[in-house]
Design a protein that fits this description.
Blueprint: H1 3-15, H2 18-25, H3 29-43, E1 48-51, E2 54-57, H4 59-85, E3 91-92, E4 95-98, H5 99-116, E5 120-121, E6 124-127, H6 129-137, E7 143-146, E8 155-169, H7 182-187, E9 189-193, H8 198-208, E10 218-223, H9 226-234, E11 238-243, H10 244-252, E12 257-273, H11 280-288
Parallel strand pairs: 3-5, 4-6, 4-7, 9-10, 9-11
Antiparallel strand pairs: 1-2, 7-12, 8-11, 8-12
Helix pairs in contact: 1-2, 1-3, 1-4, 2-3
Keywords: DNA-binding, Transcription, Transcription regulation
InterPro entries: LysR_HTH_N, LysR_subst-bd, WH-like_DNA-bd_sf, WH_DNA-bd_sf
Domain HTH lysR-type: 1-58
């Protein structure tokens, strides 16, 4: 059994698709299939059930998956120790961030960091606050950047920045250029971010200060990114809560307008795992953000 076979097994188990796993691993589909077959043959155990054209984990595969993940995590820990021994010439800082942070706040800070430490790679995955927290807990990310409220005894949470949400609509929307009351928001048609996003959570908290909740809104669309939400808003008829950072370019060109209704500012936070030792590369990245 090799680390490559374990890595291939884990990715196939997560995607349940040989072709997609090959694309993620930069391998051909036959190479992926051969690695799985070699594992199954060597240990005389079927790890996947072939159901029609699809795959499902067998009972043995479900039992083996957490062990395979644990072995790969330990191997990555060993690599980080060796990277530390070589100083900051080599290393990696794995980041998962909510979309607003990943798109509008982190890139410039990452660019400055890699200019200082060109040998350190900083892979970034964008998701939402919930997926960032889950990745840190699972050991799949060293740092998670979130906008939402995060709880968890195993997570350390520190403020690193912030932004403000605004309510946005097309320029010809009936609520544009006039004071907006809570009753107007209840009558309006909305497009919202998906559950688990910090934007949606912060909107809910902001509305609660005015005696409203999301259930009182008429929600026509739920979309998975700020860009998609703003595209829907620009088409007319809908309003949305979006970060001012995300809306700035469309606001400047007149594609959307900011409604006269204020929501409280929100914090950006970095989360780390309390039980895991931070590598020197991770520590250097945190220091570059002004966070000890």
């Amino acid at each position: 059994m090799t680390f490559d076979q374990l890595r291939i097994f884990v990715v196939v188990a997560e995607t349940l698709n040989m072709r997609q796993a090959g694309e993620l691993l930069h391998l051909t589909q036959p190479a992926v299939s051969a690695a799985i077959t070699a594992l199954e043959t060597r240990h005389d155990t079927r790890l996947f059930e072939r159901v029609g054209r699809g795959l499902e984990l067998s009972a043995a595969g479900r039992s083996f998956l957490p062990e395979a993940r644990a072995v790969l995590a330990r191997a990555e820990d060993a690599q980080r120790v060796l990277a530390d021994l070589s100083g900051l010439v080599h290393g990696e800082v794995r980041i998962v961030a909510s979309q607003t942070v990943a798109t509008y706040w982190l890139p410039s800070r990452m660019a400055r960091f890699v200019e200082t430490y060109p040998g350190i790679s900083v892979p970034l995955v964008a998701g939402n606050s919930a997926t960032a927290a889950a990745a840190v807990l699972a050991g799949e990310a060293d740092l998670g950047f979130v906008e939402g409220h995060i709880d968890g005894d195993l997570l350390r949470v520190q403020r690193v920045g912030g932004d403000r949400l605004g309510l946005y609509a097309a320029s010809d929307h009936p609520l544009a250029e006039q004071p907006v009351e809570s009753a107007d928001l209840q009558r309006a048609a909305w497009v919202l971010r998906e559950p688990g996003s910090g934007t949606r959570e912060h909107l809910q908290a902001g509305l609660a200060r005015h005696g409203l909740n999301l259930d009182a809104l008429t929600v026509r669309l739920v979309l998975p990114s700020n860009g998609a939400v703003l595209e829907a808003v620009g088409a007319g008829g809908l309003i949305a809560a979006v970060s001012d950072l995300a809306a700035a370019s469309r606001l400047a060109t007149g594609q959307v307008v900011r409604l006269h209704y204020e929501l409280p500012p929100r914090d950006f936070r970095v989360i780390t795992h309390r039980a895991r030792r931070a590598s020197r590369a991770v520590a250097a990245f945190m220091q570059s953000l002004g966070t000890p």
